[in-house]
């Protein structure tokens, strides 16, 4: 008589350890989703460590905080412009006629437990989210992290910034207070300035003559559903590409375009990221609990015949308002129709500037002609023209920000508002050019300093007297790691148009794009665009004692 033993998994064979319930669930999920193999391949992925990389994490964590607090606020907010008489907890507003949106915001602030704190965390989180995205994009721009293969990811980040700005605009318009209503009025006027279709768009968006009855419900749907949904998709794609392309890293010992030097995702990086999330959450909560923002009960409900004093948008929407404020009030009449150029021209200029920022990676790739992948970051000083462009854009933005708050600046500093307006008009053209020239000169000076440091070493501060009486300062040679960092950057040769005729003497037609590329390339990488790196021969000659102390 023979016996048969069954050794199938989970058969409960004698002496075999019974798997815990959690392990069974994990095995069940892995058999259907392949989680274990996926985690094994990716959870030990290496990420470099640098303080500037935390800027993107601040933006990510702020976005999570906005989503969490936004869900809480949605439970109590009423997106309606129907008018009611207020009899809530805020006694000074008793008997005031207001929209249900404004009344529900008052209820959130004074009746809902923790409502005011959550409102302020949500608003401060939005400001920090957009600021972190902007500074993160500046880091990416100045270090060249947008180069191949990350051009698409730059576009995703750019779209996240633009959508974040419009999400903020629709968000701070929802309370229907006197400040946000003034901002909507500004937007309404800008839409009306669009030729031919402006009035139709305004009537459709507002549901009739301003202020209409539909703008708050429509902004609510856009703010809560449409824009966050698109941003979540873009954010997921952005993070997937970061994971797929591997993170960029600064030049240093052992770092190449084919490896990553850093820490594994699990457990080190995830532990640091988790701690950093709660740190960001704590700082935002502390700011929200300490500094009041958007006190709508002070401003009152919106009325079309009133404007709040010092009415200003949030900082990230200040520059389009500055464009319109400094523009002369030009109007032209064509065939009985009035074109408000004082508003229409700035509205057309703004998308052009934003488009230039979005496509810049492709422009630089075309100028250099470099099709290689880049995983090592640039030091901003080693690309003076790009750094100059970035600094010029920041200066241009600050000038327009002053223009967007010209009344506040005039009041605070006791200046003439006309003088500030003319400063913005002139500075709009002059300040970016001066900033570009100065920034480029500073970068070239820093390159010269690095070149001297590589060839002659670091100044030690020790003065030595030679036998013949001459005094010199002793220079200490740099470590190999420092030498590598200072000389690891790329130096492109300017593109040349080439001979105008081929080897048979046939005249070659040179296109405009080729001429433009050669001119831009010379501006980027010509003799006045970069300082030549020290060569190995120069270094050997100096360090061997021939030609230097």
Describe the structure in your own words.
This protein is mainly alpha-helical and 549 residues long. The protein has helices at 21-33, 35-42, 54-74, 100-110, 115-143, 151-173, 178-192, 198-206, 215-245, 265-290, 296-299, 318-326, 341-368, 384-404, 406-413, 417-456, 480-487, 512-525, 536-543; strands spanning 46-47, 83-85, 97-99, 249-250, 263-264, 331-334, 337-340, 376-377, 458-465, 471-476. The strands form five sheets. It has a two-stranded antiparallel sheet with strand order 1-5. A two-stranded antiparallel ribbon has the order 2-3. A hairpin with a 5-residue loop joins strand 9 (458-465) and strand 10 (471-476). Helix 5 crosses helix 10 (265-290). The model is unreliable at 1-6 (pLDDT under 50).
Helix-strand blueprint:
Blueprint lengths: L20 H13 L1 H8 L3 E2 L6 H21 L8 E3 L11 E3 H11 L4 H29 L7 H23 L4 H15 L5 H9 L8 H31 L3 E2 L12 E2 H26 L5 H4 L18 H9 L4 E4 L2 E4 H28 L7 E2 L6 H21 L1 H8 L3 H40 L1 E8 L5 E6 L3 H8 L24 H14 L10 H8 L6
Helix pairs in contact: 3-5, 3-10, 4-5, 5-6, 5-10, 6-9, 6-13, 12-14, 14-16
């Amino acid at each position: 008589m023979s016996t048969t033993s069954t050794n199938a998994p989970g058969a409960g064979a004698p002496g075999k350890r019974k798997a815990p319930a959690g392990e069974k669930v994990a095995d069940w999920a892995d058999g259907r989703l392949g989680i274990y193999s996926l985690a094994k391949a990716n959870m030990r992925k290496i990420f470099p460590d640098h303080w500037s990389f935390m800027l993107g994490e601040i933006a990510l964590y702020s976005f999570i905080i906005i989503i969490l607090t936004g869900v809480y606020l949605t439970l109590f907010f009423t997106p309606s412009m129907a008018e009611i008489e207020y009899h809530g907890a805020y006694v000074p507003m008793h008997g005031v006629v207001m929209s249900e949106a404004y009344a529900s915001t008052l209820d959130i602030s004074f009746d809902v437990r923790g409502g005011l704190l959550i409102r302020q965390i949500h608003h401060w989180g939005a400001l920090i989210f957009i600021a972190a995205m902007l500074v993160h994009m500046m880091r990416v721009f100045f270090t060249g992290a947008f180069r191949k293969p990350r051009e698409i990811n730059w576009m995703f980040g750019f779209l996240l910034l633009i959508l974040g700005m419009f999400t903020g605009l629709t968000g701070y318009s929802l309370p229907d207070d006197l400040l946000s209503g003034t901002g909507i009025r500004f937007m309404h006027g800008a839409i009306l300035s669009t030729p031919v279709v402006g009035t139709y768009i305004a009537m459709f968006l507002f549901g009739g003559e301003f202020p209409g009855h539909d703008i708050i419900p429509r902004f609510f749907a856009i703010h809560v559903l449409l824009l966050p949904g698109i941003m979540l998709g873009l954010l997921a794609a952005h993070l997937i590409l970061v994971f797929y392309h591997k993170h960029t890293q600064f030049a240093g010992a052992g770092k190449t375009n084919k490896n990553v030097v850093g820490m594994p995702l699990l457990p080190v990086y995830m532990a640091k990221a988790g701690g950093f999330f709660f740190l960001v959450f704590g700082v935002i909560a502390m700011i929200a609990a300490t500094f009041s923002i958007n006190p709508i009960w002070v401003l009152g409900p919106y009325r079309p015949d009133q404007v709040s004093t010092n009415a200003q948008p949030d900082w990230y929407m200040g520059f389009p308002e500055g464009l319109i404020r400094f523009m002369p009030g030009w109007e032209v009449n064509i065939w009985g129709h009035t074109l408000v150029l004082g508003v229409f021209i700035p509205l057309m200029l703004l998308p052009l500037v934003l488009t230039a920022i979005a496509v810049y990676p492709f422009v630089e790739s075309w100028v250099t002609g470099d099709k290689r992948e880049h995983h090592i970051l640039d030091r901003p000083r080693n690309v003076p023209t790009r750094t100059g462009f970035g600094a010029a854009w920041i200066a241009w933005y600050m000038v327009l920000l002053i223009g967007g708050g010209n009344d506040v600046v005039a009041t605070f500093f006791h200046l003439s508002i006309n003088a500030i307006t003319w400063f913005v008009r002139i500075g709009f053209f002059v300040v970016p050019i001066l900033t570009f020239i100065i920034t480029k000169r500073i970068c070239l000076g820093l390159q010269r300093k690095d070149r001297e440091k590589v060839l002659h070493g670091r100044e030690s501060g020790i003065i030595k007297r030679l036998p013949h009486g001459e005094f010199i300062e002793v220079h200490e040679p740099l470590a190999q790691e420092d030498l590598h960092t200072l000389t690891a950057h790329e130096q492109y040769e300017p593109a040349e148009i080439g001979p105008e005729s081929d080897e048979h003497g046939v005249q070659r037609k040179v296109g405009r794009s080729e001429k433009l590329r050669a001119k831009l390339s010379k501006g980027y990488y010509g003799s006045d665009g970069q300082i030549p790196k020290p060569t190995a021969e120069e270094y050997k000659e100096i360090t061997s004692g021939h030609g230097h102390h």
